[in-house]
Amino acid sequence: MAEVNNNAKKSSDLVIVDEDELNQEVQTNGFVPEAKESFLYDNALIESLSFDHLTCFNPKISPAQPGMNLRVRSLGSGDYERGFLDLLAQLTKVGEISKSDFLKRFNAMKSCQGTYHVTVIEDTTTQEIIGAATLVIEQKFIRGCAKKGIIEEVVVSDRYRGRQLGKLIVATLIEMGKALGCYKVTLNCTDQMIKFYCSLGFTQEEGNANFLQIRM
Amino acid sequence: MAEVNNNAKKSSDLVIVDEDELNQEVQTNGFVPEAKESFLYDNALIESLSFDHLTCFNPKISPAQPGMNLRVRSLGSGDYERGFLDLLAQLTKVGEISKSDFLKRFNAMKSCQGTYHVTVIEDTTTQEIIGAATLVIEQKFIRGCAKKGIIEEVVVSDRYRGRQLGKLIVATLIEMGKALGCYKVTLNCTDQMIKFYCSLGFTQEEGNANFLQIRM
Description:
Strand order of the largest sheet of chain A: 1-2-3-4-5
CATH superfamily of chain A: Gcn5-related N-acetyltransferase (GNAT)
Largest interface: A-B, 68 and 68 residues
Oligomer: homodimer
Order of helices and strands of chain A: HHHEHHEEHEHEHE
């Protein structure tokens, strides 16, 4: 646990992405070489997670072995070119976002140390992002200055359904929340998704399951 | 709007609280002099909010005029001594939190620029914190790199009920979310609180009002 927290701390050190350099690389060969890439958080955090105790996968998969030619990792600064935003567009409105907008938001998230854990699944044969979900860590004063995890924007490409990848990415975020010391992890979902999340251990607590919003 | 955002930006400049200095002040006179105090965000953000269009208050109150001897402001580094945690204990478990724990969490929140807006109501006659609520700003990629507001830990001291202060602090956070450019503000609440939040404009969206959690 102490080791995981160290990793998490290291993961959120600020690294400024050199946008010109990235753009140049992109023009050269279509993708950012991973050695030059900045990750939103340290991938060692994912590598530290154990799925040994989980019984909800059949066949058994884990972030370390997600399936043939797949990789689970932190969002990278080069994922703009790998279709990360096209994938989000399968979930909700994304709109026009330039590479510069993407990097600005990426760096703003990264500068909030230990807060944003945008996690993706990459098809390593095509370098395409085919799954994504976000764990936001909220710091509180209650419960001895506790942390709460919030899961947002869970999506798996429609071409990759039936491989337990939605379950895999959500279970990864739950275990990450535990490793980071959260006292709970919460989410909001549509009626159709209740069964899916409950199969992963989420519950609607009696008298306390109401999600309200105001759209501006 | 541009001006508000400037204020918001200024509000999150990092100011390190000198703990020894604070402790010394506390020993001297029981309270931290406000001139030496650090605020979580710039109070100019609250001062910029207009309540002119709101019809839900009778009699009319606002963050600028919350009632006799009351003040609405950002959480301050001296609010540990002003009973901020005792107030939170009226809402949920708080546990043992030292002044050092409090300041550590306060500074960690402050270093996440523009994220944590813990807002309090102070009784200026007793210097006691008698109301509090938090607006967390979550940064997203969806909707053109949008921001979402999340309201948490809303509490008014039982000795100050019946003065519209719960409504006042929640309405303040909604207007703050608008001023900071959020596309929506959300919250989770118990069954009993639905009516209260709906009176402030919140809705349970058809098919999308489910709040799920896993406790660790």
